[in-house]
């Protein structure tokens, strides 16, 4: 599946997607994703991304698990629980495959410092899980689903033959039908929650969606720049 159906007209997701159009286009055009599309992304940047994304997925899964406890509909809770499991198991299996392929030692991965952008993003999601009402939390986690699928499908549509593409597995994971179905389910839950919310809550949902999308750009950018803590000269590298 290269593209998703358009969001429901007049729903929260349609409005939020339109609000972040320019930012989303900047993510697709980011040098990291352009190089990923072309297969020219260097190993150091991709390894940095893979290690940081593994850290991110833990916080993302925790936020999804928290959302499942806040859902009042058991079926909705089951969807969120399944998504949390997928983040921890299925996607991390992809990351583990690349760690093995690149010959990274476990000590090297565990000893890598969590980047400022990764820590900021996961801290935002954990704070939302702890303090925000259910609809706002859904809006906070939705960009990770949706933006990744959008980037993956865009790369799939433009990269051409993937037979010898070095990042074929990554592209196919985020552009396949199974992941698209997860995005559609997350969108449906968010639109459902927004429809039952007050205008004030919908405003907070929009703010959360935009902020998470900003963090998405920052995360890609941190991998491109191999982001380090600016204080490392005084305190050294700490995991």
From TrEMBL:
InterPro entries: Haem_Oase-like_multi-hlx (IPR016084), Thiaminase-2/PQQC (IPR004305), Thiaminase_II (IPR027574), Thiamine_Salvage_TenA (IPR050967). Pfam families: TENA_THI-4 (PF03070). Its EC number is 3.5.99.2. The keyword Cell cycle does not apply. Pathway: Cofactor biosynthesis; thiamine diphosphate biosynthesis. It is an enzyme of class 3 (hydrolase). Keywords: Hydrolase, Thiamine biosynthesis. This is Aminopyrimidine aminohydrolase. It catalyses: 4-amino-5-aminomethyl-2-methylpyrimidine + H2O = 4-amino-5-hydroxymethyl-2-methylpyrimidine + NH4(+); thiamine + H2O = 5-(2-hydroxyethyl)-4-methylthiazole + 4-amino-5-hydroxymethyl-2-methylpyrimidine + H(+). Catalyzes an amino-pyrimidine hydrolysis reaction at the C5' of the pyrimidine moiety of thiamine compounds, a reaction that is part of a thiamine salvage pathway.
């Amino acid at each position: 599946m290269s593209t998703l159906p358009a969001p429901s007209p007049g729903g929260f997701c349609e409005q939020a997607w339109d609000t972040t159009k320019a930012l989303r286009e900047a993510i697709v055009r980011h040098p990291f994703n352009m190089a990923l599309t072309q297969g020219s992304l260097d190993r150091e940047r991709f390894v940095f991304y893979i290690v940081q994304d593994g850290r991110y997925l833990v916080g993302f899964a925790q936020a999804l698990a928290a959302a499942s406890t806040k859902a009042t509909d058991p079926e909705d809770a089951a969807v969120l629980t399944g998504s949390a499991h997928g983040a921890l198991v299925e996607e991390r299996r992809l990351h583990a495959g690349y760690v093995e392929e690149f010959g990274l030692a476990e000590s090297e991965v565990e000893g890598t410092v969590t980047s400022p952008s990764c820590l900021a993003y996961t801290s935002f999601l954990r704070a939302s899980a702890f303090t925000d009402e259910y609809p706002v939390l859904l809006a906070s986690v939705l960009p990770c689903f949706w933006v990744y699928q959008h980037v993956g499908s865009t790369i799939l549509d433009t990269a051409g033959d993937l037979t010898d593409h070095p990042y074929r597995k990554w592209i196919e994971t985020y552009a396949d039908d199974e992941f698209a179905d997860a995005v559609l389910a997350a969108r449906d839950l968010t639109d459902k929650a927004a429809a039952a919310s007050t205008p004030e809550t919908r405003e907070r949902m929009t703010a959360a969606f935009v902020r998470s999308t900003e963090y998405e750009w920052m995360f890609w950018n941190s991998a491109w720049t191999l982001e380090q803590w600016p204080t490392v000269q005084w305190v050294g590298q700490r995991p």
